[in-house]
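User: Could you write out the 3D structure of this protein bound to pterin cytosine dinucleotide? I've included everything you need below.
Assistant: Certainly. Input first, then the structure.
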Amino acid sequence: MKRNEDVRLVTGRGLYVGDVALPGMLYAAVLRSTVAHARIRKIDVSGAERLEGVAGVFTAEMLGELNGPLPPSVSPLPQYPINYRTHYALAKDKVRYVGEPVAFVVATSPYIAWDALELIEVEYDPLETVVDVEKAIEPGAPLVHEDLGTNVAAEKSVRVGDYESASSKAAVVVRERFVYNRGGGQSIEARAVAAHYDQREGTLTVWDSTQAPIPIRNGLARLLGLPDTKVRVIAPDVGGGFGPKIMLFYPEEVLVPYAAMSFGRPVKWVETRREYSVAANQERIQVHYAEAAFDRDGRILGLKDHFLVDTGAYTPYGVMVPIITMCTMPGPYRIRNMDFNFKSVYTNKTPVSPVRGAGRPTAVFVMERLMDKAARELGMGRTAIRRTNLITPDEMPWDTGLIYQDGAPNVYDSGNYPAVLEKLLEISGYERWGELKRTLSRGSKRIGFGLALYVEGSGVGPYEMAKVKVDFGGRVSVTTGVGSQGQGHFTVLAQIAGELLGVDPSTVDVSVGDTGKMEWGVGTFASRSAAVAAPAVYNAAMKVREKVIKLAAKLLEANPEDIVLENGRACVRGHPEHGLTLAELAQKSAPLRGTIDEEPGLEAVSFFSPKRSVYASGGCAAMVEVDVETGAVEVKKLWLVHDCGHVINPMIVEGQLHGGIVMGLGSVLYEEIVHNDEGIPLATTFADYLIPSSAEVGFDLEIAHLETPSPLNPLGAKGVGEAGVIPIAAVIASAVDDALSEFGTFIRKSPIKPEDVLREVSRASGR
Ligand code: MCN
């Protein structure tokens, strides 16, 4: 089936926040810090206030009760304590990164608002900056938050089994320092917020390009002192999220509604691309000191990984990223002894929160690099060492012994990792890798093959809710809180309700991300809509189905077991002419006269709350060409085997994997957020921050699916939205090393830029 949302979107009928236009609207612009670390001595807004068309200028002092730290986006887990520090809506006393909001201007046009920013004078007393995460934990490093006395926001040690004793018996211990650098999620639409306060009704309506409208509504109501029935947050069409739009709150998400209430006029703020490059959260940046111990046959005896996560200036998302990294490290391997330690470290940079993959690409990069290195040292094949260590289906459910981001045990619910590996070798023509490497390498160009395996905890709870309804015209509708940023929810959720109620899914209306229609839910992140929101739709649709069948059986004088729902009708099995349309049944369920036995209407609300996360898995192989003279890496072919349990919509799943893979390639080959020693970001446009274009993704891509249904939800589904991105850095590093095997290189860093390749070749070959 085609995607239900596409005709509307490709014919320009989408509604993005930028499209929201209301009479009397004012426009906002944000003055951002141009320095990474400084005390604010003075802010003079008088020049801006005098500019014609400026309605008002805010600084921290003018925000009254809002002049305090914003609430964190996630509640702390008792197992993982943290010294939270979150943004103020506007910086007070001190700025801690380039891009931090300092003042907020509201004017009659966006151009006047931007002009006014130039008239605001800020005097900064510069402070020493701390940019590098390893230097940030050294004694005497400048402190991002002086009151803490340290830059360490959180430190956690976790032990499973006894690594020291296991490694003392090892034949080989491989050790490395790995660095995965900073990157972001680049949605086509940057962030945007519009708000309107209706003074007569006392209601606040906010349009927000967010992945989590319901938590934003709940938080805004509390912050602004309104009952939550008076606050409606709508995430209309959202032009991509990729993680950074899952904040509760960004400063602008508070400032725009506050300004709308202060002026009694609608206010809109639309972020520029350049602002996004410093003000939208980023991720990835970690440094790992990792080692793994193996016996002579290549069996893993234990894994040790002490790592640093650069969390930037604040910790809005707590320690979710390092927890996910840690829990992704063991991957599909049978590892009984583990020793982890992570530190989440403040630096003078844009804050970190999950970006598609959320700490997993780093974990897979580190783990798979260790596997490759061990294979090399043991003289084993990269495939053989993996095969030796894979958890088998009869060992499921497999408890890693760790505690996951939802506070529940990190237990793999299902999966068939040996089958993933064998399928990957089959579709990638593994037996011919050596021959192709020899025959296709020529001149300065070397061909190499890589492989990487992974397990991905997806579909975290706590719950989602859905409403399914058949209206008097027989139209089926689904309402859920989880917004779509492009994932295809308008199609997949329609499919689930349509199939259970016997109607064509393309006729099912799906409404997402509007607290005026659905008040309960959490949001679109952690690849959870298939595993959490879709089961809620399933539960609600099942309730409606039962109601339809019961009513039809009564009216048709038949047994409920004999009622079938198809083509928008409820009929007696074998007698399609003996039936009623859903429209007729809906009308009869809520008549204008007489009495009824049940609640009126063919409508039901239900929820789904998973006990734990569900664990998807996959394997990726790549063929690359590396030019040893220029250092350029070109992907020639990529194969991915993925298991997200029952695939609800194959086309959408395939599209999600394609998108993820391309994002992964950006992360490992092109994208890097670089800062100089003063904390000034050096790549703030797409001329400097390279994202893959169609020229870079013209390679062959083959995807195969395995389906081991999850026992933890009624659809057997596991997540896929982040899956493509997760193995890419690992697989490309493995392939680059293979291509450069004559030099004996070992890639320890992502991204792998041409200069890294050349440096690695010279280092390894002693040139
Ligand atoms: N699906 C399916 N069968 C499965 C699993 C999923 O048909 N077994 C479908 C789902 O119904 C949904 C899509 O595949 O339509 C992705 O499902 P899921 O893995 O549950 O992920 P979410 O819908 O929760 O989306 C979140 C995920 C994340 S965390 C990021 S980041 C991300 C991503 O999705 N951001 C995206 N994919 C994105 N795709 C687009 N176009 N834009 C983004 O911002």
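The pocket of pterin cytosine dinucleotide is lined by residues 187, 240-243, 356, 485-489, 492, 524-531, 534, 644-649, 652-653, 656, 659, 717-722 (CB under 6 Å).
User: Perfect, thank you.
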